[in-house]
């Protein structure tokens, strides 16, 4: 892991420790009790910690384990997670008279911490450069590893975004460019420009405080090398996203219906899943991908 400034960690710790809705904490408890052994830490991120109604959306969680053996009981799925983390699962639980739904990613804590530098694809560091909540840590050592990892993600995102900035850009404008570029490295249904602006503008004070702590020397880069970096990230990232989509067919129970819900929600492209689609999620994903790309439902 790269160097992380102590003051950066202090701001990240404050953000990670902010209050989390009780429904999210309940979902985390269900996962610990019923689904994943050896949990070291659980992070909540995305719209569920911002403004989403929990009974109308998915709770996005990252479940981090001490050992690869705790990720899954299946040998093949553990190997899949080792080479292409994370594994993604879906679960539901009753809460306060309605149903909570969660899409949760599982991987080892060490693997999570090791993927936050610029030398790795933005899949992890761009996600966790955005505010998240640490809703469970089994001990202080696990909490410390998560804190350093998230702080590294933020520093990586700030530095890589600043390299893309135009002379007139301030911190927030540069971050919007960085987030838009990171979305371009995945197959996503969301409109990247609007989403990037919404996330950055909703967290203006947070990012401005952090930006002041990053040494300006870290911004040194040529425009050509920056473009080459992002071109490479886009090619590799799209390929990894396609591979993760196929892999999810083996691990994501209810994945076909989730895919239909996700695409329809973000793109206006309604998809109806048949029983055959549900029995063959991998083939469904492969069959749908070209259509979704043509229609712009994923990018």
How much of the residues is beta strand, in percent?
A: 5-15%
What's the alpha carbon Rg, rounded to whole Å? 19 Å
Work out the helicity level: 40-55%
Distance between the termini: 30 Å
SS field, number of helical segments: 13
pLDDT < 50 stretches: none
- The count of strands amounts to 5
Largest sheet: 5 strands, mixed
SSE string, helices as H and strands as E: HHEEHEEHHEHHHHHHHH
Structural class: alpha+beta
**pLDDT averaged residue by residue:** 85
| Widest beta sheet: strand line-up | 3-4-2-1-5
What does the overall shape look like? globular
Description:
- With 299 residues, this protein is an alpha+beta fold.
- It is 55% helix and 14% strand.
- It contains 13 helices and five strands.
- It has helices at 6-16, 22-34, 75-83, 109-113, 122-128, 140-164, 171-183, 192-202, 204-211, 223-251, 255-267, 275-279, 281-295; strands at 39-45, 58-65, 87-95, 98-108, 132-137.
- Strands 3-4-2-1-5 form a five-stranded mixed beta sheet.
- β3 and β4 form a beta hairpin.
- α1 (6-16) packs across α6, α7 crosses α8 and α10 (223-251) packs antiparallel against α13 (281-295).
- The model has no long low-confidence stretch (mean pLDDT 85).
